[in-house]
Amino acid sequence: MLIACLDLEGVLFPEVWINVAEKTGIQELKLTTRDISDYDELMGMRLKIIAEKKLTLRDIQATIATMDPLPGALDFLDWLRDTCQVIILSDTFESFARPIMKKLRMPTIFCHALGVDGNNVINSYHLRMNDAKTRAIDAFKSLNFRTLAVGDSFNDLGMLQRADHGIFFCPPAEISAQYAQIPVAQDYNTLKSMIADLAETVGPAA
Q1: CATH level 2 (architecture), domain 2-12+72-109+127-201
Q2: Beta pairing, strands 2-6 & 122-126
Q3: Which of 117, 163, 191, 206 is the most exposed place for a label (fewest CB within 10 A)?
């Protein structure tokens, strides 16, 4: 049986932090895992900016409330759930993910958690585990699933390389050039075609 593990932001939903940056005018928050490969460095920078600007969790959730899935994402996700099992593997946080999952018709998501102080300011983050995406792929393989991973950023590389089949979706050119062995889909129709071929040919895991 094939199980598809998808990144969230950049694959199904716009980048939350980029939208927060545009809404607040805090340009430093536009940096994402497409720009900085070290997730701890990236989150440390974000927490520092949030503290300086007194940006609250409610402020970020208000931005998320104005956002919609990427064009075509819902139709693709509906098709995929009819094709195989689907799990969202994301480095986002539960407080961000709940409203997003409602907009995506409630797929299962594995993500992380935030710490919030008495003023509703985010002051920490708590990873469910280190390298959670890659370890989820390993767990599914141990359960005798064949695994497909789809992502777009540096923080997806572990799961893309560890899965039986990894596909980049609309990645930055410099990332896909650096990891040219990973096939690329630039739109949902191409991604569907690539996955349909896998679903037809894949057999039980060895």
Answers
A1: 3-Layer(aba) Sandwich (3.40)
A2: unpaired
A3: 206
List, for residues 91-126, the tens digit of each pLDDT value: 999 999 999 999 999 999 999 999 999 999 999 999
Given pLDDT bands bounded at 50, 70 and 90, which one contains residue 5? very high
Provide CB contacts within 8 A for 44, sequence distance 6+.
Answer: none
* Residue 165 CB neighbour total at 10 angstroms: 19
Of 9, 91, 152, 156, catalytic: 9
* Side-chain-side CA neighbours of residue 24 (13 Å): 24
Q: Measure Cα distances from 42 to 29, 57, 85, 121, 150 in Å.
A: 9, 18, 31, 18, 22
15 is catalytic: no
Would you kindly state where each structural domain of the chain is located, as residue ranges?
2-12+72-109+127-201
Beta strands of the chain (E only): which ranges?
Answer: 2-6, 85-93, 109-116, 122-126, 146-151, 165-169, 184-185
Residue 94 among the catalytic residues:
no
